[in-house]
Input
Amino acid sequence: MLGDLIDSIGKNFERLLRWVYPGALFLVLLYASKPNFFKNLTSVDNAIGIWGLVVGGLVAGVIVYLLQGYVVSYIINVAFMLLRWDVRQRLQCDHGERETESKKQPVSCVRWMLPLFDGMAAGTRERWSISDTQKLGNHLTYAWATYKAVLITGWLTIIFFGINESGSVFSSATAWAVLPPAILLLLGGLFTYLILSRIPVKNP
Output
């Protein structure tokens, strides 16, 4: 029963990361970069009102999430696919025959990282039970949602910082106070991708 409760909490938290967090983040960053526009939307004289803003934030969150999933993640996937980093590359075939060992390996510029990230991937699989596909699948679902949330936070912060208006929170902050943390979040998201993409979902 306790295990079912933990799984339920994990699934709900994962849904929050996917669908609620981007919208909430969008509204927070909108207020931090364009407070006058934000206040006009929430004023009593405006037909939108507070509930309209909430709905708008949820819609914006869905759009942000879709941009992350179908644009940002796609660019990352293609880049690392060309580098033959994804562990699924070793299952691809060339003209109906299995690829040679040299073709399975990532290109030389990223090959030096393999021992580190393969070790992390192996540790993750063992921790979440290689023999229990459901446990590993639940962990990966949550981990990929976290990866997307981290990347969204990074690039959305950079965008709103770039369009801030005078008198906003972002306008009073220096670039060194905002951009380095956002860039670190982007790098952290890529680091997470490097690990997750080396985890075979099925046993070899």
